What does this fold into?
Amino acid sequence: MPLSNTPVSSVLIIDDHPLFRKGVSQLIAMSEHLHLVGEASGGEEGLELARTLDPDLILLDLHMKGMSGLDTLRTLRDADLNARVLILTVSDAADDLVAAIRAGADGYLLKDMEPEELLDSIEQAQRGQVMISERLNGLLARALRDEAQAEERSLAPLTDREKDILGCLAAGLSNKLIARELDIAEGTVKVHIKNLLKKLRFRSRLEAAVWAIEQNALRRPPNGR
It folds into this structure.
């Protein structure tokens, strides 16, 4: 049993492969930090459960019969749910990776990871870290770097506060943790993120985070100072 002061995160799995769902559910049962609250075999069922259960973390397959994982992800984001969404897929294609990140995924993991490594990555995602399978990191960074050079992006248009928040994004912090770090309201964090994404011409916070790491643009004042 987890210690009383250890947060336990609720998890929803959306995947159309029953055996994979079973395997992941068994992994989650081994963790004292995670609690499985629901399983769905498709996007529409998953959306209904997500709205009903309001989980902390959603594990989402990318290629499913019927409603695709990408369409499910976009609908989840449009619904403004607070859940972090972690893609679990067999696809290591650059187009799929970039599309998922731009649609608002908080991470992208491959299903062929070792079970222990997969569980560790899910737990780190639950703690707010940005998780991308190691062999895909360079691929994503390269795609964003090439695009950034073409777009001539820079930090110049950002305010100091937006730079603070960009650094927090690069460190993998959730909105709640950024608000605590900078001693501002969570709603204010959301407004700043929206503004910095618009200025940098990114469509997702994870794109901005990866770009910031590439630029070494980490600016995180301790305790909001």
